[in-house]
Amino acid sequence: MAAPTRTPGAGHPTFAMALAYWFRLGCISFGGPAGQIALMQTDLVDRRQWIDQRSFLHALNFCMLLPGPEAQQLATFIGWRLHGVRGGLAAGILFILPGALVLLALAWIAAAYGGVPVVAAVFDGVQPVVVGIIAVALWRLGRRTLTGWPALALAGAAFAGVHALGVPFPAIVLGAGAIGAAAARLGSGAFGRPTAGAALDADPLPGPWRTVRLVLVFAVLWAVPVAAVLALLGTEPYAGIARLFTTAAFVTFGGAYAVLPYIAEAAVDTYGWLSAADMIRGLALAETTPGPLILVTQFVGFFAGWTAPGGLPPMFAGTVAAALTLYVTFLPCFLFIFAGAPYVERLGRSAAATAALGAITAAVVGVILNLGVFLAEAAVVPEGRFDPLAAAVAIATAAILLRWQVGVHWAVLAGAAFGLVRAAATGGL
């Protein structure tokens, strides 16, 4: 699993230099995947020259084909190219660790003090802001993705399947991918065409047994810690956590927003770990912390342990549950990079893979629309009562984000202030 031959002319940082950079990146990686990728472009390609532009773009295209957070996987890939497996592990782990620690503390505050009037007022003000944020994400993704009637039809079918028929999200992903691949085999470019280019590296491809060995190693790395937690602490809620978030890790195409309806439905309706309002709070907190948005799964996991501690102190159970959630969520990300990195160029030039991803992304638009409906019901129509002020805040948030490109974290902070002012005006504090 050694890294490929380095590109001539690229920078040659020591491992200590790389460690310092990856930790810094993990602390300042606000702004979602677009901002995180732009930051790596500026730092690693333009300033430090640790990777050349062509390799960076090929790696980015590869990561966008994978399930999981593309910015975190891009960092993992670059770390692997620089220092092999240890470099990939360092880059990927440090990309998420600072945000995970911050979100763990915020999850505890939400669970332990969410009923305190001041804290509750903050969260209530944030909820409609999150609805506006999701509306903007839906608009931007849809405008870029739904460029023809096949994509529009697939998005509509995905929304109907999830919202009206209850089709599981993994089935939506698999079905959309199959439709895209089939379209490519028929010569259709309805869901995208691959990009041509020269080979990324001159290194020979590894044999198939390398992938088999990697899959076996990662299967053991998944099974042993999960089995240990279940044996020591019992199955509830840890078996459900391992099952739900491992499945989610393999179907997170199109970003965290795409898989959140699947997670929310299971966490809220099936397991009862938290409420829909708590789910919105977790999403808002994840939006304001560094690292990938999929860290919201850690918030859900913490609530799972807090709600069902099984005789353990809730803080301890919540922390273990959050750690288990992080582990099973991100472990597959490393497998995808280490197993697929030698095949970057071939995957990026595959018509079937490109069309499958395009079809999945189109379907994801419909799934995100379902997420918006789910969260809007909780934030704008709480307990069946329409809240016109909350609706106005959601609409204003979307308009401001679209018009002035305000950072999402500022919108969340403004929502918190709105909640405090509203609670004070109505005597809720």
Describe this structure as you would to a colleague.
There is one protein chain. This protein is mostly helical and 429 residues long. The protein folds into 2 domains: 15-95, no CATH class; 117-425, no CATH class. Helices cover 75% and strands 0% of the residues. The protein is built from 17 helices and no strands. The longest helix is centred in the first third of the chain and has 44 residues, at 70-113.
Write the layout of secondary structure elements.
Blueprint: H1 15-28, H2 32-47, H3 53-65, H4 70-113, H5 117-145, H6 149-163, H7 169-185, H8 208-233, H9 238-250, H10 256-270, H11 276-287, H12 296-307, H13 314-340, H14 344-348, H15 351-379, H16 388-404, H17 408-425
Helix pairs in contact: 1-4, 2-4, 3-4, 4-11, 4-12, 4-13, 5-11, 5-15, 5-16, 5-17, 6-15, 7-15, 8-13, 9-13, 10-15, 11-12, 11-15, 12-13
Q: Can I get a quick summary?
A:
With 429 residues, the protein is mainly α. Helix content is 75%, strand content 0%. The protein has helices at residues 15-28, 32-47, 53-65, 70-113, 117-145, 149-163, 169-185, 208-233, 238-250, 256-270, 276-287, 296-307, 314-340, 344-348, 351-379, 388-404, 408-425.
What labels would you give this structure?
429 residues, mainly alpha, 75% helix, 0% strand, globular
Number of domains: 2
Radius of gyration: 22 Å
Report the portion of residues in β strands.
under 5%
Give the N-to-C terminal Cα separation: 58 Å
Sketch the topology as an H/E string, one letter per element. Answer: HHHHHHHHHHHHHHHHH
The level of helicity is over 70%
Strand pairing plus helix content: what structural class?
Answer: mainly alpha
The count of helical stretches stands at 17
